[in-house]
Amino acid sequence: MAALSLAARPSREPIYLDHAAATPLDPRVEAAMHAAAAVAFANPSSPHAAGRRARALLEDARERILTLVGGRTSGASRDRLVFTSGATEANRLGVLGTAGSHAGIVAYSPRDHGSVVTAAARLVAAGWRGVPLPLDPGGGACSAAGRLAATSHSRPVMLCLTPLCGQTGIRDSLEPLAAASPATTPLVHADATQAIAWDAISFRDLPLTSLAFAPCKFGGPRGIGALVLRGDVPLEPLADGPQERGLRGGTEPVALAVGFATALELAVAGRSEASRHVTLLRDAFERNVVAAARRHGIDSYVVGQGADRGPHITTIAFRGCDRQAVVMAADLAGLCLATGTACASGSSEPSAAVAALGLPSWVPAAAIRASFAASITSAEVDLAIAKLDGVFRGFVAGGLHRSIDTQ
Fold first, then answer.
1. How many domains does the chain have?
2. pTM value?
3. Active-site amino acid positions
4. Same domain assignment for residues 220 and 293
5. Once rounded to an integer, what is the mean pLDDT over residues 119-125?
6. Based on the domain organization, do 63 and 34 belong to the same domain?
7. Which residue range is the domain that position 13 belongs to?
8. What is the pLDDT of residue 175?
9. What is the 3-state secondary structure (H, E, C) of the chain?
């Protein structure tokens, strides 16, 4: 630990580049939540006037969110939106709640969040056959999922997919799933937690049965998420309760739901401009950090460079540098980075998605993630680069950088 002090001294206000884990609450969202809390403090299940007022705001937020993600909001085939405690619960509900009573085949990949992988493992423990989907050279799993979906099966098939990987930022097109015939159409759950703020999603036009996401990734509140479900798909609760049409228990958090809807509206309205801004910041960060590492004799590898990526995530490996030591040193220097998803950041294992890409063996162990938001300025990125330059200097001077010859 003493050697890490060779990095620059921390500033009073750290540069936060971990927006893929969680984003600051947008002041406009906070204002909407305060306004909702003032008039909708009652239990929305209560039959009195105050309860009905809370119910009205809750259902309005539900409709706004469902409309923004292209769900069907009317008719016999109307889609459903279930509020959850976050994306983890939404993923579990989407996988376990739609599985039905007959064991089948469940497919998942290293791109998937841990909540998806553990839900798939629960199905395997219950008698389903687990099929790990390999990543293609571009880092996606939908090609393999499409081949599985196009094959005739006597058992139900569930595909778990991640349109935008939180570990690498690499996108994955759902188009290969169009090859599935009507007779073999699988259940398809997508975790859109990283994608929803950056990519236009129309649920009704995608080959999905369920879609999970949460607003804490785009300026919204914590403690709430959503599962969008196709209207004709049965859904069993994970824990019985009278709320959310019998799918879960606990009083619905009306103010959080209003904040959720407001944050998504703001993200959708500002998506194009934010994407341009953040892409420029990400590219400048990559270019200059790689150059800074090179000045200190450290080779770098930008994971997924040249692939179709979301604008807000970059994963870079610094050869000969332990990823956790880099993140710790950066933290001491006043820079917040990550080694992968926040839920697995303390793990000694490298990112599963990075490890599955078939890259040189040193890359997964040396890969760190920086993630951006529209609120980040070019001046902050410049300061972040300067801080990392100090980290590299400290690593070399302190003997923490080691030469690696293995590929």
1. 2
2. 0.91
3. 343
4. no
5. 97
6. yes
7. 2-17+270-397
8. 85
9. CHHHHHCCCCCCCCEECECCCCCCCCHHHHHHHHHHHHHCCCCCCCCCHHHHHHHHHHHHHHHHHHHHCCCCCCCCCCCEEEEECCHHHHHHHHHHCCCCCCCCEEEECCCCCHHHHHHHHHHHHCCCEEEECCCCCCCCCHHHHHHHHCCCCCCCEEEEECCECCCCCEECCCHHHHHCCHHHCCEEEEECCCCCCCCCCCHHHCCCCEEEECHHHCCCCCCCEEEEECCCCCCCCCCCCCECCCCECCCCCHHHHHHHHHHHHHHHHCHHHHHHHHHHHHHHHHHHHHHHHHHCCCCEEEECCCCCECCCEEEEEECCCCHHHHHHHHHHCCEECECCCHHHCCCCCCCHHHHCCCCCCHHHHHEEEEECCCCCCHHHHHHHHHHHHHHHHHHHHCCCCCCCCCC
